[in-house]
Amino acid sequence: AISTIKYFLSPALISDMIPTVSGLPYNAKVYGIKTIASHPCAESDDFLIALLDDPYPEIALTAINSIKKCSSPEKVLPFLIKKIVDFDIDLQGEAIEVIGHIGSNKEIPLLKDFLKRENWFLKVSSIKAIGHLQASSATQNLLTLIENLEKEDAFEIVLEALIVAFGNLKAVEAVKPLCK
């Protein structure tokens, strides 16, 4: 039955749906995106790339999260990276985490840049992405982040992300600074 739904909810059909802030067309479009992404193919990859420009943040967010399942992440990744500067903070954070799932060490400079941002959400997203990529080349950047970490609203969230990332990196040199 799901494969029948896949063909019924083709990218062409979904793109013709007119999203509204609430109501069936908007919800149907979100559901359609998720359904198409669960059956990766070249056509769905192109569809997800196009949806990165959707004016509705929820649609763009669904497309960003669906990119993890696309058939050719290496094809979609450059479009996601190019669009990341245009996104609002919430979409940037999600895009950064997706980069951690489908990217490679080539994206580490971008992730290091987001570590320097003031926004804690972007820092946490970048930390998670670095940990997921097991990018040991960023270990020193994460250690520097510990040294400069202040007790702020998101202190525990940032610290938790750092601990998980250091575990993924198998960075024993982080134990001492974390214990301070």
Task: Write a concise keyword list for the protein shown above.
180 residues; mainly alpha; 12 helices
Report on the architecture of this protein.
There is one protein chain. The chain is mainly α and about 180 residues long. It is about 70% helix and about 0% strand. The chain has helices at about 1-10, 10-15, 25-35, 40-50, 55-65, 75-85, 90-100, 110-115, 120-135, 140-150, 155-170, 175-180. It is elongated. The N and C termini lie far apart (about 55 Å). Mean pLDDT is about 80; it is low at about 1-10 and about 15-25.
Number of strands: 0
Alpha-beta content class = mainly alpha
In round numbers, the mean pLDDT is 80
Query: Which percent band covers the strand fraction?
Result: under 5%
User: Gap between N and C termini, in Å?
Assistant: 56 Å
Radius of gyration: 18 Å
Percent range of helical residues: 55-70%
Sketch the topology as an H/E string, one letter per element: HHHHHHHHHHHH
In DSSP terms (H or I, runs of 4 or more residues), the helix count works out at 12
Which spans have pLDDT < 50 for at least 5 consecutive residues? 1-9, 17-24
Query: Shape from CA axes?
Result: elongated
Let me know the largest β-sheet: none
